From TrEMBL:
The chain crosses the membrane at residues 15-39. The keyword Zinc does not apply. It comes from Thiobacter aerophilum. The gene is ccoO. Signal peptide: none annotated. Residues 54-231 form the Cytochrome c domain. This is Cytochrome-c oxidase, cbb3-type subunit II. SUPFAM superfamilies: Cytochrome c (SSF46626). The lineage of its organism: Bacteria, Pseudomonadati, Pseudomonadota, Betaproteobacteria, Burkholderiales. The keyword Metal-binding applies.
Amino acid sequence: MNLNFKHEWIETNVGVMLVLTMIVISIGGLVEIAPLFLVKSTVEKVDGVRPYTPLEARGRDIYVREGCYTCHSQMIRPFRDEALRYGHYSLAAESQYDHPFQWGSKRTGPDLARVGKKYSNEWHVAHLKDPSSMVPGSVMPRYPWLATTLLDTSDLVDRLKAQRAVGVPYSLTQAEYERNVKQFGEAIAKQLHIPNAKDNLVKQATEGNYDGDPSNVTEMDALVAYLQVLGTMVDFSKYDDDYFVKFR
């Protein structure tokens, strides 16, 4: 009876209710925030993660432009059913060079965090042109124009410089190039050197032949190149789940 009286008294006194509410919120906030000051980094230390090549970066731009993220997440949650369907749960390290990152929970279509190398280039091209031809009953719209639209590279350098401004380690100077050689290896460092971006883009598209037509570079080349790299950078066989726990 006494407890009920005190509870009623709190509820009928706005000032007391406000103070007690702020105290509870503050305690909850401290419980959530304080541990972050004790963790050196929430980005896992793994080998293989690198920025996108110029072609992959343009493919990602097209992916965002066409609104693919509204139906496909790139976040596998640490649940058994998701691991069985998609693979290892997503790491923060895998999205450290994504601006903006493509995590989320909206899935009209399947999660694409590990779609890279799961299907052939030909499959992706056919799927993007006519999704229902590859996945009967699919509600995904068609994107046939990607195969006939030449990739615009006129602003490629500016796009890479914009990513560089927010921390993606594309290089402009020789010193920055040498830094990338040490961090990613010479082959990747060459791909990340902005002065050679257009040549590197054309070379990757021609050698990869993502759209099935090596005579030109299309938006289909770029988008398929991007899809084929998703989830392929980290070799999870080198790590066990206990390794990642310390970064949470």
